[in-house]
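Attaching the record inline, Q. Sequence:
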Amino acid sequence: MKDDDFKREDILEDLFTAKVVARISQKIEQEDFFEEFLFYARRLSNAKAGFAYILDDPKSLTLIATTIAQDSHLYEAFSKLDYETMMRILGVEAKILGSSEILSPFSALIAEYGSLDMLFIPLFAKREIFGALFLLREPGGSAKYFEKVTMLMEEVKPALENIATVRSLRELIIRDDTVDCFNRRYFDSQIMDEISRATRFSLPLSLVFFDIDNLKEVNSLYSHSAGSRMLFEIALRVKGGIRKIDKLCRYGGDEFCVILPETDVNGSIEVAERLRDLISRKPFLVSDTGGIKMTASFGVASFPLHADTKEELIIQADKAMQRIKVLGKNSISIADNIKG
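Structure, as predicted:
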């Protein structure tokens, strides 16, 4: 091959890279950004499969994009990866792992697909880890492809920084500072997205509404400040009793809602009972008051069993909760309007 041919190839590759960087950098929504980035990262690395993750909070890892079907065994394994496991087995240094180096929970599963290298690239924004990229490819030349992907990552890093900034600003808008959970604005948007997803993939979706019993008495006896601290402690317990894909939202006052994706009515009843027990089991504000026992009333409704619209699903869950408030509190009620 002549020198001119080498130069021509370099120019073509540079033009391709510039075009890809421009296309990825146009994406301002994090889902769109990671889908586009993963598409080209897989192409550059000749990978069989790719997975991109983001950190929803300092220690909550969420799979945001993948190149393989959701019903595959490989997807099932990678979708369960959590932050602690990633840190324990991989750390925060970019690396290439051969088949013999790949550790649980991936080693046995990857063996089903033959000998593979795993390219691991942590993603940083604002000098903090923002997510991670996994690429699985056949052995041979992995170092060259690894270098290409890491170079692409450096080129789109300014765009990733913008994504992180936008997400930080949105966090200020969608979170309730008093109880450190999502607010009503986020709930209204998220429930629509989850209903669309449940409809598209024929998945169940449930809402658990709950209202704190007798919170007004805490405000009267100990002050509204004590009531606010009470709500914060309650939200903290509830977040410890749900999955990372579930979303706790403050619906208003002392009323909360948990969005439960991929959960049918029986599963939502189990969640509601677990949360009811978590709230009632131990006293709150122990250091401030010596301890106050609290309970909550729960209402459960599921899509599409009880309703097929956002508005009706909310109404059915709220009605079920209000029924318990009247009948005696500290219990669970299920929506009774089953769609035909």
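The chain has twelve helices and twelve strands. Confidence is low (pLDDT under 50) at residues 1-12.

More tomorrow.
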